[in-house]
Amino acid sequence: MPVTANKMDSNKPLPVWDGKKSILIQDDALAAIDIINSSGVEVRLALIDPPYNRRTKFHHYNDSLNRDEWTTTISSHCSKIHDVLSSDGALWMHIDDAEMPRARIFLDRIFGEANFLGTTVWQKTVSRDNRTPISTTHEYILAYAKNKTEWHKSRNKLPATDRQTDRYKNKDDDPRGPWASGDLTAKAGPGRRSEQFYDLTLPSGRVVRPATGTCWRYTRERLDELISQGRIDFGAGNKMPRLKRYLSEVDPGLVPDTWWPGDVVGTADSAKRHLKSLFPDLIPFETPKPEELVSRIIHICTDPGDLVLDIYGGSGTTGAVAHKMGRRWALCERQERTFQEFTLPRLQAVASGRDGGGVSDRFKWTLNQPFLVL
């Protein structure tokens, strides 16, 4: 996906797109953003995988630019993306060590340091390369919100795993269902009330009090209410009390962390195997991302029907996953060869039901509306 200047004829009117159907554009990044901007449709998520500038010549593109040229070009694209994002929208950028520090600098400038969400580390391979001084097994994903407060209100948590929910048990046949216990003490200090410091008599008759430097989380009056409601666990009657937290009353979702292992979100090798199953006769695309990785980002940042933008379409993973997850998407790929060999046929396979790999089964994907090609 080489970066070039906008090739669109400035005297030619932009193609008309009403935003109702997904769109695939064979042109450069700025042309695609101009089409989005002219439509008035807001982007909820821009998920981009720009050239990393590794000073490497791949089979499908030459990933080597003067550093200043790379920085100027990619930052101009990101600035244009910022303009078409919704107020709760976000930009997530794949990158590696070659240009990550410079990307942080220009993204801080475009979005504002206060809107930085985090740097996710993706384990792109689980194998070790002994040919290099240090084996590189990860890449980064930089995440910025247009407005961090608005993004936080609307973002989605990750589904809880069995490991998180298995700790909820119903050891006493509580009619409210499975529960896990939580500490009833809190750190003492400014803001604590005198009513939070008291002795408590257990059902066994033993008198207990919080450890030095701590106090009860609740006043005696509130704790008595919880006891009467059966929401306090004393064990066999002689254990320090603990609060019963019911699975039915808690949000089981997980806030994303910054370490995404390959056995959870896929690896570069698993992404290549998926592409190889679709295009067995082609030389594999060198830098695809796994659908599981892309689906996690789309889940966090969007809801069904939202628009996902990728201006460096490559092998088409962003559009493929967005399609399967019921989102609209706008993809652009500059290189005609990549467009004809991978981007277009990949998305045609998805839209026609011929791609059952990746996240198809997870999202019980069925055929959606066709997409437009410009």
How are the elements arranged and paired?
Blueprint: E1 23-25, H1 29-39, E2 43-48, E3 56-57, E4 62-63, H2 67-84, E5 85-95, H3 100-111, E6 116-123, E7 138-145, H4 148-154, H5 162-165, E8 179-183, E9 185-187, E10 200-201, E11 207-208, E12 214-216, H6 220-228, E13 232-233, E14 242-246, E15 259-260, H7 262-265, H8 268-278, H9 291-301, E16 307-310, H10 317-324, E17 328-332, H11 336-351, E18 372-373
Parallel strand pairs: 1-17, 1-18, 2-5, 2-16, 6-15, 16-17
Antiparallel strand pairs: 3-4, 5-7, 6-7, 8-14, 9-12, 10-11, 13-14
Helix pairs in contact: 1-2, 2-3, 9-10, 10-11
What does this structure look like?
This protein is an alpha/beta fold and 374 residues long. It has two domains: 23-158 and 255-373, 3-Layer(aba) Sandwich (Rossmann fold); 162-249, no CATH class. Helices cover 30% and strands 20% of the residues. It is built from eleven helices and 18 strands. It has helices at 29-39, 67-84, 100-111, 148-154, 162-165, 220-228, 262-265, 268-278, 291-301, 317-324, 336-351, and strands at residues 23-25, 43-48, 56-57, 62-63, 85-95, 116-123, 138-145, 179-183, 185-187, 200-201, 207-208, 214-216, 232-233, 242-246, 259-260, 307-310, 328-332, 372-373. A nine-stranded mixed β-sheet has the order 15-6-7-5-2-16-17-1-18, sandwiched between helices. Strand 10 and strand 11 form a beta hairpin. The longest helix is centred in the N-terminal third of the chain and has 18 residues, at 67-84. The radius of gyration is 26 Å and the shape is elongated.
